[in-house]
Each structure stands twice: as C-alpha cells, then as structure tokens.
Design goal:
Layout (H helix, E strand, L loop, with lengths): L4 H4 L2 H23 L9 H14 L13 H12 L1 H10 L6 H30 L7
Helix pairs in contact: 2-3, 3-6, 4-6
Length: about 140
C-alpha cells in the first residue's frame, strides 16, 4: 500500500476536499472584497459550515487520507495564493512582503485560528455534554 495520499483516496473524496478548499478561498475573496473580517458573519458562519463538512468527511485529522487540519488547509490556501514563493522572493531580495501578500497572510492566520478553535471545541464536545456532567 502506498503512502502517497493521492493514490489511496477515492476521486469523490478528493473532489470534496478540493471543493472545500476552493470554497474557503472564495469565502476569503468575498470577505476581502467587502473589507470585512472572517470573524464576522456571514463569513464566520459560512467558514464554520465548511469546517463541519470537512469534519464530517473525516478530513480534520492528521491520520486522515485527506488531511484538512488547520495546518494543511492553510498550506493549501498559501499555495493557491502564491504566498510561499512571495515570501521566499522577499527574503531573497531582503525586502518587505508586498502589501497584498501581507493581507493574505493575515487572512490565513484568521482561517488557521478559527479552524483550530472549532477543531478543539468539536473534539472536546462529549467531555462537556455527557449525562455525568449534567447532574
């Protein structure tokens, strides 16, 4: 069995993961166009719905065949936006990162933070919602 996740994943699962990534990217674009933070509705609610979809598909786990944990989702978004190469170019030229890339980095941090917080809360839900805790 190959360790390459692309070889082990059904095309339907990969299509769903790609759709989630593209929808997160579009959501970010929409929020930026409206100059509104992701932390406010309707963007926060829509991003949370995408998190729920990713979790329901089993993607929000480092052990998953398709890993859409906060780190990997943000890695995919950074790749989509060209942030890695922009950062490397700025470092090599010993210059500042262009403002549009700085803004994308800030947005990426927002996505990362929200996704991590929801993952944490989701994983601990049972701990605080069992019959033993409601005596």
């Amino acid at each position: 069995m190959s360790n390459d996740p692309v070889n082990n994943v059904s095309s339907a699962s990969q299509a769903l993961a790609n759709d989630i990534i593209q929808r997160v990217a579009k959501l970010v674009k929409d929020a930026e166009a409206e100059t509104r933070p992701l932390e406010l509705d309707p963007y926060r609610s829509q991003l949370f719905e995408l998190f729920v979809m990713a979790d329901a598909a089993g993607f929000v786990s480092e052990e998953a065949e398709i890993d859409l944990t906060a780190d990997n989702l943000c890695r995919e978004l950074a790749k989509h936006w060209g942030l890695k190469s922009a950062t490397q170019d700025a470092m090599e030229a010993q210059s500042k990162l262009p403002p549009e890339h700085v803004n994308k980095m800030r947005t990426l941090w927002s996505v990362l933070r929200l996704w991590m917080e929801w993952d944490y809360a989701w994983k601990r839900w049972e701990e605080f919602h069992t019959s033993d805790t409601h005596r």
